[in-house]
Amino acid sequence: MRRKPLREVRARVCAGLRGDVVEVGFGTGLNSPYYASGVTTLYAVEPSQVGMRIATPRVEKNDVPLEPAGLTGERLDLPTERFDAALSTWTLCTIPNVDAALSELLRVLKPGGTFHFVEHGHAPDPGVARWQDRIEPFWKPIAGGCHLTRRMPEIIEKAGFTIDDLDTYYFKGELKPFGYTYEGRAHKN
Ligand SMILES: C[S@@+](CC[C@H](N)C(=O)[O-])C[C@H]1O[C@@H](n2cnc3c(N)ncnc32)[C@H](O)[C@@H]1O
Predict the structure, then answer these.
(1) Cα–Cα separations (whole angstroms), residue 148 to 20, 29, 111, 113
(2) Please, are residues 189 and 166 in contact by the beta-carbon 8 Å criterion?
(3) 38: CA distance to ligand 1 center in Å?
């Protein structure tokens, strides 16, 4: 997750974040060097306490106040319509109930609030998609519950977001079934 090409994507996805931001699947804080200067407080949702411990010095170095904001994206103990933006990088593949997590993000965002994301998922090429279907049952248990076949834009729109920008591509250097990428922005109406 620390490779240089991923860092370039992190920088693009975090650009323009502002105000109070909820990051779901905060991990070890690898996005923190890229939070835009307009971010006032980062609310981190992350089940792994080890991840949070590794992240704390990383985030402090970047002068963005960090608030731990719970252990699971599916049930946010955060107020409704309180946040300016939400962020998810390579996390929606892993959350068991991704629909619930996206509904929660929608709930806590203010109207007009933005959702910045980069995720991998279902590939449009039938040959690659077939491999994804075959590999996923073996991959999921060894990869922390990571799904390969989620159709991210459909899932995001079904939750009630409007997608404004979407870039899709196979991530260079990644095997195609693992690397079909959805990078974009959405907002709450
Ligand atoms: C592949 S990692 C990505 C971490 C980080 N976003 C990054 O870009 O480096 C997926 C993250 O999702 C977290 N996660 C797993 N289940 C979750 C859940 N139900 N709610 C929120 N985060 C979850 C994992 O602990 C892990 O940190």
Answers:
(1) 31, 23, 31, 28
(2) no
(3) 24
Q: Which token pair is 24?
A: 């779901």
Percent of the chain scored above 90 by pLDDT? 87
Chain centroid to Cα 73, Å, comes to 10
Residues 11 and 34 sit within 8 Å (Cβ to Cβ): yes
Q: Where are the beta strands (DSSP E) in 4-150?
A: 19-24, 39-45, 66-68, 83-89, 109-120
Tracing tokens 């999921």 back to the chain, one arrives at 140
Question: According to the 3-state scheme, what is the secondary structure of 49-92?
Answer: HHHHHHHHHHHHCCCCCEEECCCCCCCCCCCCCCEEEEEEECCC
Contact 31, 96 (CB under 8 A): no
Please name every residue paired with 107 in a beta bridge, in sequence order, or none if there are none.
Answer: none
In Å, the largest CA–CA distance within the chain is 46
Confidence band, pLDDT 50/70/90 cuts, at residue 3: confident
- Which atom number of ligand 1 is nearest to the Cα of residue 1? 9
**Is the model's pTM score more than 0.70?**
yes
pLDDT band at 54 (very low <50, low <70, confident <90, very high): confident
DSSP class of 171: P
Point out the ligand 1 atom lying closest to the alpha carbon of residue 27.
Answer: 27
CA-based torsion, 178, 144, 156, 40: positive or negative: negative
